[in-house]
Amino acid sequence: MLTKAKEQLVRSLQSKKGRQENELCLVEGKKVIETAGQAVQWTFSRKDSARFDELVSTKTPQDVAGVAKIPKWSTADMASRKTIVVLDGVQDPGNVGAILRLCLGFDASLMLVESADVTSPKVVRASVGALFQVPWMVVPREDVLRAVLAFDRQVYRLEQGEGSTLNKKITPPCVLIAGSEGRGIQLDVSGPSISIAHNVALESLNVGHALAIVLHGWF
């Protein structure tokens, strides 16, 4: 059975403040729990609590969830990947989760600037637990330039616009900045612009789709 103290802890992890204070996050579903591996502190299932549905953010098919230690990644961990992706203002949890999966598949790490909380249940679920495998860090907007320059890599900006076509001869290691579909890149970090040619009937590409094309081309 799930104790009252554990129930209270699980409830607290629904909020960003609770996750930060406890340095823990929820992992929901068997696959995510398996991916989290040794970070998982303990698990619980529907049979452990009559209030299971209140404790999780969604009804998981496996009816199992757990509490996991939020990973801490170093600058060296970030630099160990071929590409460092910088997300500028990408607030959609589904997009951020999918991009974490892309980073896992294409040897990239992830820097987040005013983007969806990586430890939120929606992002954890959308990433299928990739936050436990992909180096990531959250950087305040005012510190981004210093953080990017510290990696001593060529910076590219993934943007819409003429005269900035994707050059597949570009090879990592590099830093790749991407913004939301609506606002684009707001960061004042200079570097060559690259874009993806597409039919003019398509106004813009979803940031996750655009990153998938670029990262695959560089892999």
From TrEMBL:
Gene Ontology biological process terms in this record: methylation; RNA processing
InterPro entries assigned to the protein according to its UniProt record, in alphabetical order: Alpha/beta_knot_MTases, Ribosomal_eL30-like_sf, rRNA_Methyltransferase, SpoU_MeTrfase, tRNA_m1G_MTases_N
GO molecular function, one term: RNA methyltransferase activity
UniProt-recorded name of the protein: tRNA/rRNA methyltransferase SpoU type domain-containing protein
Keywords: Methyltransferase, Transferase
Organism for this UniProt entry: Candidatus Uhrbacteria bacterium RIFCSPHIGHO2_02_FULL_53_13
CDD domains with a match to the protein in the record: SpoU-like_rRNA-MTase
Residue ranges annotated for the tRNA/rRNA methyltransferase SpoU type domain, each copy included: 83-216
SUPFAM superfamilies: alpha/beta knot (SSF75217), L30e-like (SSF55315)
PANTHER family, per database record: RRNA METHYLTRANSFERASE 3 (PTHR43191), RRNA METHYLTRANSFERASE 3, MITOCHONDRIAL (PTHR43191:SF2)
Any Pfam family matching the protein: SpoU_methylase
